[in-house]
Design a protein that fits this description.
The chain is of the alpha/beta class. Helix content is about 45%, strand content about 15%. The chain has 14 helices and nine strands. An eight-stranded parallel β-barrel has the order 1-2-3-4-5-6-8-9, surrounded by six helices. Helix 12 links the parallel strand 8 (about 235-245) and strand 9. The two termini are about 20 Å apart. The structure holds (3S,4R)-3-hydroxy-2-oxopiperidin-4-yl beta-D-xylopyranoside. The site of (3S,4R)-3-hydroxy-2-oxopiperidin-4-yl beta-D-xylopyranoside (XIL) has 6 residues, from loops. (3S,4R)-3-hydroxy-2-oxopiperidin-4-yl beta-D-xylopyranoside binds next to loops.
Length: about 325
Amino acid sequence: MTTPLLRALAAGRGLTIGAAVDAAALRDDARYRALLAREFNGVTPENALKFAPLRPRRDRFDFAEAEAIVAFAAAHGMRVRGHALAWHRALPDWLTAGGFGREELTAILREHIATVVGHFRGRVTAWDVVNEGLPVAHDPARAASVWLRGIGPAYLDLAFRWAHAADPGARLFYNDDGAEGGGAKAAAIDALVRGLLARGVPLHGVGLQGHVGLATAPDPGALAATLRGFAALGLATELTEVDVRLQGGNGTPEERLTAQAGVYRDLGLAACAAPRRAGLTVWGVTDRHSWIPGHTGRPDAPLLFDAGYAPKPAYAALREALRG
Ligand code: XIL
C-alpha cells in the first residue's frame, strides 16, 4: 500500500485518531480487530468503562471487558481514553434507586474514581472525568443527575481532584456535546472550566463530542474559534465522539456520502489546526457498530467504514485532511 494509513498520518502530525470500541465485536470479530489495529492509534471503550458495567454491585468491580480493550490497545501501540467517570447515564439500579444521601453518594463516587483510575494508572492516559455535566433543555435527565442533585455542583471539583490523586500522569477532560459550533453551550462550558481552573482544579482539556449531521455540522470557522478559545485557557481540545449522520441531509445516497466526507474533512482539518490539539475519535469502527440507528430509530451510516468494513468517501477525506 503506497498511501499511508490513517494512523500513520495521524502519528506523523502528533495526533491521535481513535475509535470507540465495542467489547463484543473486539472479542468475536477478527475482521473488526484487524481493521481497528490497522487504521487507528487510539481507542475509547464505548461502554466498558461506564459506571454500570464496571460496578454491578457496590462492593464488586468487574474490569474484564475494559481490560480486554486496554490489553488490545497496548498490544497494538494505541492510546486509551477512559470514558466516563461521572455521568448521569449508565448507572446501576443499586445506585439510582438506593436512596443514598449526600455523604454516601460522595463516598461512592470517590471510591469509584479512586478504584477505577487507580486500576488503570499509567495505561489509560486520558479520562473524561465529567461527561455532559451541564443542564440542558433538550435532556432534563442531566439536571436530574444523581451526582448533581445528590452531591451538588461541588462534585465536579471533587471528581477531578480524586482522579488526579489516583493517577497524577493522566490528562483529565471535561467532555460535552452541542458546543462544536460555539454559541450558548460553548459559553456555558467556557464559564464552567474557567471556574474549575480558578479554583485550582486539575483540569487539562475539553472534549467536544462531535455527534453531528449533514444538516447540523458546525461551521468550520466557528469550530476553529471554539477550539482556540479553550486553548487560550491553557486547555487541550479533542473531538471525542465523532459521527456524521446522513439522516436529515438532502440529495441522493451518493451525494450524501460526498457531503459527509466534506464534514469529516472539515473536522479533521480543525483537529489538525487547533492549538494544543490532542486528536479526533470516531464513535465506532464501522457503520455496523454505530449507536446512531438504535438511538434515533432510523437507519444511518455515520462512520468512516461501511457495514461491509469497506472505506467510505469519508475515510479518504479524513486521510486527505491529515496529509495537510
Ligand atoms: C452511547 C453508546 O454508544 C451506546 O452503545 C450506549 O447504549 C449509550 O451510550 N454521548 C456519550 C456516549 O458520551 O457515552 C454515548 O455512548 C453517546 C452519547
